[in-house]
Design goal:
The protein is an alpha/beta fold. The chain is built from 10 helices and 17 strands. The radius of gyration is 29 Å and the shape is elongated. GO terms for molecular function: kinase activity. Homohexamer. Its cofactor is Mg(2+).
């Protein structure tokens, strides 16, 4: 599982965590690897058996009040015992002022001490949701991700096959670009893949012979999208004579990404084929499949019923002729 440094957590603004650093700046490179948090109430009382140092430790009103009411010698002993476990970080909620002994011990041990003005329940909900999203498996894919009629289509294929040109044509038809060339893919529970562009290439597209273009500036904000669930993968391949391609749509291919299987179509490319239109129709067909309507299977069922009827009629005719 990927890790997230405390420095990255502190710098996060979009999640609304509202964090500030109080002490332990030396430990900002410590990392969190699990999305669950812990409230170390028992650990402050000296019982550290079930403490998980790799989790964020949240200190609310109850924990700080208890710490302030302990005899100073006992409080200092328990804090030293707790901080000796190499805690990833402490976060104080409700904007409370931490006890001086806590500030001194975390500074001495190099454990980041952060503070948020949120209530404990609100902060725990926010940080858990944020960590679940950031700590789930992620990868990058060489391809293009477009939003076609609400279907996230991941275009795959070797370099120069025409993925970016196809995506540009889709944008001209009113669809939206998510990422070109490098698609950052992140898994989201329970088993969904979301793709987005890299920070450097966001909104940009490379068209051979034309260069780098900015889709947002050329076509406006309606032509782009920050991130999109990946519903369908389409691999563009060079047309090869003698190779038998699926002509009925009955092959159930899949593309495995982060352990999740995505429906895959393999489309041969040759001069004269309108790949953009084919991709758009594939997206429409995927919508029908998600609604439980499979055109190819329905055609196969009709064909098999017709063949069965013809066979029955033929058998009846033969039997009738023999009786005469």
């Amino acid at each position: 599982m990927a890790g997230l440094s405390i420095q990255e957590l502190l710098a996060e603004k979009e999640a609304g965590l509202d964090l500030e650093l109080l002490a332990g700046e030396r430990g900002l490179l410590k990392s969190v690897r699990v999305p669950r948090i812990q409230k170390p109430g028992l650990a402050l009382a000296g019982y550290t058996t079930n403490l998980h140092p790799d989790r964020i430790q949240v200190l609310g009103s109850t924990e700080l009040t208890y710490l302030n009411h302990l005899p100073r010698d006992l409080a200092e002993t328990n804090l030293k015992q707790l901080c000796a476990l190499d805690i990833s970080c402490f976060i104080i909620t409700k904007g409370q002022t931490p006890p001086a002994m806590l500030v001194e011990e975390t500074e001495r041990q190099g454990i980041p001490l952060l503070r948020s003005h949120h209530q404990s329940s609100t902060f725990i909900s926010l940080v858990t949701k944020f960590l679940e999203e950031r700590l789930l498996p992620a990868t990058t894919v060489h391809g293009v991700l477009v939003d076609v009629l609400g279907v996230g289509v991941l275009l795959l294929g070797k370099s120069g096959i025409g993925k970016s040109e196809c995506a540009l044509d889709l944008v001209l038809k009113g669809h939206r670009l998510v990422a070109d060339d490098v698609v950052k893919v992140r898994m989201k529970l329970p088993a969904v893949l979301f793709g987005e562009g890299s920070d450097l290439l966001h909104y940009h597209m490379e068209i051979r012979g034309l260069g780098i273009i900015n889709i947002k500036h050329l076509f406006g904000v309606a032509a782009i999208r920050e991130r999109k669930k990946i519903d369908l993968a389409i691999e563009l391949v060079e047309w090869q004579e003698g190779v038998e391609y699926d002509r009925l749509g009955l092959e159930d291919l899949s593309y495995s990404l982060l352990g999740i299987e995505i429906p895959l179509l393999r489309i041969p490319v040759r001069p004269g084929r309108n790949i953009t239109t084919i991709v758009e129709v594939a997206a429409r067909n995927q919508l029908l499949k998600e609604m439980g309507y499979h055109s190819a299977l329905e055609f196969q069922d009709r064909l098999e019923r017709r063949m069965a009827e013809m066979a029955h009629l033929h058998a009846h005719t033969i039997i009738g002729d023999n009786l005469e």
